[in-house]
Amino acid sequence: MLPPSLRLFIRLPIILVFLIILVPPQILSHFLRLPTRRYIPVFTYRLALKIAGIKVRIHGPRPKRGTLILSNHVSWLDILLIGSVMPVNFVAKADIAHWPLFGMLAKIGRTIFIEREKRSDAMNQRNALQKRLSEGERVVLFPEGSTSDGTIVLPFKSALISAAETKIKGQAVSVQPMTIVFSQLCGLPMGRRMRVEYAWIGHLNLVPHMLKVLCGDPMTVDLIFFPPTNIDAEGGRKALAGRARRQVQDGLAAYTVGHSTGDYQMHKPCPEAKKSVNPHHE
Questions:
Q1: Please, where are the H alpha helices in the chain?
Q2: Which residue, 224, 245, 226, 222, is CA-closest to 174?
Q3: Residues 6 or more apart in contact with residue 127 via CB below 8 angstroms
Q4: Relative to the CA of 255, which of 58, 60, 121, 202 has its CA 20 to 30 Å away?
Q5: What parts of the chain have a pLDDT lower than 70?
Q6: Which residues lie below 8 Å from residue 36, measured CB to CB, with a gap of 6+?
Q7: CA distance 273 to 134
Q8: Can you give the pLDDT at residue 82?
Q9: Measured distance CA(237)–CA(164) in Å, rounded
Q10: Chain CA centroid to CA 135, Å
């Protein structure tokens, strides 16, 4: 296995080169509103994950177009993980729009920026989400409002879930909970301490954390999609938020103890994982 510093030396330049190649076509597609604007990010995210040694496993029914996806939030990696599976629009805090480079990438990726503390603008924010859903976009919402440590799911805030209260072509908006699980490192189940190392908690600086992930061992992440539902079927947005959170937490609990719905496979561990992962961490 390569030492961490050598991994970074190899991976970082490759990712930067591909960004230089792929970002200009995405900017052009964005401003000209070409169909490719929805698919270039998917290819970019898949490539970045491949270079970083991160494998994504998908479980359950993939969301159809026009679906509001409710997911737990662990890291900035969540954007790459979900975006590598299908074209999606993310909902993010407004201040991200002003970040160097990342703000530009978010804008050309058609991210919906909101100010959670600005209650007076709640109607406009809900309308923006409804517009994207009516256009057939899959919209990803992180209802926790912040990142967690990858082991628990924080309470879901139901305010923006109200975007699913509208009807599209006479049909209730489909809402689909999903769980992101940082599950394996070099083929061994990740203990809590290892997941915390890869989680991006709010107080951590972004760039050092990104470099740390690029230095890391091969990792496997599970994306668990639950059956779709809607607000009418659940009896309101608060009831939907509560049930969705329980599903997401159950999915996280099932995979973090080394179990799954039947297609969980163990892989041969690498030497470094044997040293770094302690079975008593759980």
A1: 4-32, 40-52, 77-83, 102-108, 122-134, 192-198, 206-214, 231-234, 237-256, 271-276
A2: 226
A3: none
A4: 202
A5: 116-120, 202-203, 257-282
A6: 25, 26, 29
A7: 46
A8: 96
A9: 8
A10: 21
Positive or negative, the Cα torsion across 240, 241, 242, 244? Answer: positive
Distances from the Cα of 251 to the Cα of 86, 161, 198, 256, 260, angstroms: 21, 20, 19, 9, 8
Multiple choice CATH, 4-281, 3.40.1130, 1.10.10, 3.90.70, 3.40.1550: 3.40.1130
Residue 32 CB contacts under 8 Å (≥ 6 apart), including other chains: none
First-to-last alpha carbon distance for the chain, in angstroms, is: 26
Residue of 211, 173, 179, 232 whose CA lies nearest to 70: 179
Asked whether 225 and 91 are in contact (CB, 8 A), the reply is no
Quote the pLDDT of residue 120. Answer: 63
CA torsion through residues 228, 33, 43, 93, sign: negative
pLDDT tens, residue by residue, 185-228: 998 999 888 888 899 886 678 888 899 999 999 999 999 999 99
Per-residue exposure over 47-80, b if at least 16 CB sit within 10 Å of its own CB, e if not: bbbeebbbebbebbeebeebbbbbbbbbbbbbbb
User: What confidence score (pLDDT) does residue 271 get?
Assistant: 36
Which residues, 6+ apart, have CB-to-CB distance to 120 below 8 Å?
Answer: none
Q: Decide if 230 contacts 173 (C-beta within 8 A).
A: yes
Long-range contacts of 189-194 (CB under 8 A, 24+ apart): 189/256, 189/257, 189/258, 189/277, 189/282, 190/219, 190/256, 190/277, 191/277, 191/278, 191/279, 191/280, 191/281, 191/282, 192/149, 192/151, 192/256, 192/281, 192/282, 193/278, 193/281, 194/276, 194/277, 194/281
